[in-house]
Amino acid sequence: MHKILCLLCVVYLLRVSANKTTFEKNGITFETDEDGDYNLLTHEILVLQPGSIADIQDVYRLYLMEQKITGIEPGTFQNLPSLKKLIIIMNKVQKITTGIFNALTNLTLLNLSSNLISHIDSSAFDNLTSLESLTLSNNRLTSVDSQWFELTPSLNWISIRDNQLTELPAHVFGNIKSPKPFTLVLDDNKIAKIDKDAFRGLTSISMLSLDSNKLKTATGDFLEGLDIDVLLLRDNGIKCIDQEYFGAVFVANKTDISENPWTPQCLTAIQTWAEQFNKTVEHEFA
Ligand SMILES: *[C@@H]1O[C@H](CO)[C@@H](O)[C@H](O)[C@H]1NC(C)=O
Ligand SMILES: *[C@@H]1O[C@H](CO)[C@@H](O)[C@H](O)[C@H]1NC(C)=O
Ligand SMILES: *[C@@H]1O[C@H](CO)[C@@H](O)[C@H](O)[C@H]1NC(C)=O
Ligand SMILES: *[C@@H]1O[C@H](CO)[C@@H](O)[C@H](O)[C@H]1NC(C)=O
Ligand SMILES: *[C@@H]1O[C@H](CO)[C@@H](O)[C@H](O)[C@H]1NC(C)=O
Ligand SMILES: *[C@@H]1O[C@H](CO)[C@@H](O)[C@H](O)[C@H]1NC(C)=O
């Protein structure tokens, strides 16, 4: 019964979104719909040239997905006044230079996930004054440049998950000036070291996710002064935390410490402490 219903809903969705048309500009073909979604269809482009995606009044969301794009030249995107969401994913882009995105001052979302990006210029995101969400996940970044976030005052969501970060140095996220609570996703890296001033400058954090990294212990020094809702420390290499640091590490409203090689005594001590101080520390056995 459920299967039949689902089949009907798939058919319905296909019908509802059936008004797609193709659109060609500068030799590049897109599939478009009435919502301003543009989806790149041309497959032979390797490097996007200056002005190649330009003068399209109604493009709201632009998808360049699962293509063979290896590079994007500065000035590729010009005069796209309605563009709010730019999704360049599952390509082979290796570096992001200044001048590609800087003029897109209305952009709220930029997704560069699943490329081969190993370098991003310091000024690459300058003047993206409306940008709220930046996804750099599944790339080859080995470090984060604090200047990326210097002129992006609306950012409140960053994911750099699944890269090759090994440490978070002092002030690396210190340029973030978002008035809103922040979400920072740093899962699936190799972060073994976090400087005590790494997040200095931020105040309110909705979620700080450090799952699947290489942290071996914590003193909580990098959390000092932060108001955190959810802190995720799952799947690291933490065996124990000294009791004197419990109050500094478990500062978030909720902390999840599952899938670490905790010693039984340490886990018991944490649970006893958490009950005593009314803190939510979750631990689930994998
Ligand atoms: C598709 O286009 C037709 C005719 O222009 C219109 O009546 C219909 O509402 C459109 N469908 C959707 C889902 O926008
Ligand atoms: C930003 O959006 C406004 C309209 O909402 C438009 O007039 C303006 O040209 C856009 N700016 C850019 C740089 O596209
Ligand atoms: C950002 O804006 C400033 C002021 O308008 C300008 O001087 C600068 O060149 C811009 N930066 C980039 C990278 O476009
Ligand atoms: C970015 O794209 C990836 C696919 O590569 C997707 O999983 C993710 O949800 C997207 N994120 C945002 C914020 O659009
Ligand atoms: C932590 O929880 C309290 C009480 O529910 C809430 O007022 C506060 O905003 C939460 N902190 C964050 C950073 O969300
Ligand atoms: C513990 O925290 C919960 C919710 O955060 C609250 O309802 C409860 O009153 C607290 N208990 C004590 C003993 O502080």
UniProtKB/TrEMBL annotation:
Instruction: Output the Pfam families linked to this UniProt entry.
Output: LRR_8
Supply the PANTHER family for this chain.
IG(IMMUNOGLOBULIN) AND LRR(LEUCINE RICH REPEAT) DOMAINS, RE50361P
Protein name as it appears in the record = Uncharacterized protein
> Which terms are listed as keywords in the entry?
Leucine-rich repeat, Repeat, Signal
Q: Which InterPro entries match?
A: Leu-rich_rpt, Leu-rich_rpt_typical-subtyp, LRR_dom_sf
Which organism is this entry from?
Zophobas morio
User: Signal sequence: where?
Assistant: 1-18
* Record flagged with keyword Transcription regulation: no
